[in-house]
Write a structure and sequence with these properties.
- This protein is an all-alpha fold.
- The protein has one domain.
- It contains 6 helices and no strands.
- Helix 3 packs antiparallel against helix 4 and helix 5 packs antiparallel against helix 6.
Amino acid sequence: MAASGETAREKRLAAIGTAVFAVAPATAAGLVPWVMTRWQVKRPVPGGLPAQCVGVVLIGAGATVITSSFVRFAVEGLGTPAPFAQTKHLVVGGWYGFVRNPIYVALAAAITGQGLVLGQPKLFGLAALGAVPVAAFVVLHEEPTLARKFGPEYEAYRDNVPRWLPRLTPWRVRSPA
């Protein structure tokens, strides 16, 4: 019984920590684009209404993936996406079955979508420029840390799920036969 109480407490703390950490992507995909554009639509919008519709889809998909990925960190991983409050368990479900870094991919999609909706190409530059430190962080810190912490479990995951471009079907952990 103590174990389930402990898990409920861990989930509650993970949820709180994850909600607090949500400030980071909200800043990257919300505040920074707003500061750069004041969300003003440039007229005429390059690509017109079709580009804006694609932008709306990218923003919506990005927000959905980010939100559900954050929830997965708290529920499945019993931790947060923050490097200083890592998960107890490797998170491989949900969007993580398609791509190893769904939050980063979704942030880029949301920022790109804003660029399309607003007709503000400088947001494409923001998404591209933001990818440089993110890629460096993932390769130089995040992946080696996960490999040390989760060992063969992470190696199997890394070998089956791409870093940036999603798989068409989700990878599922195979139980030992």
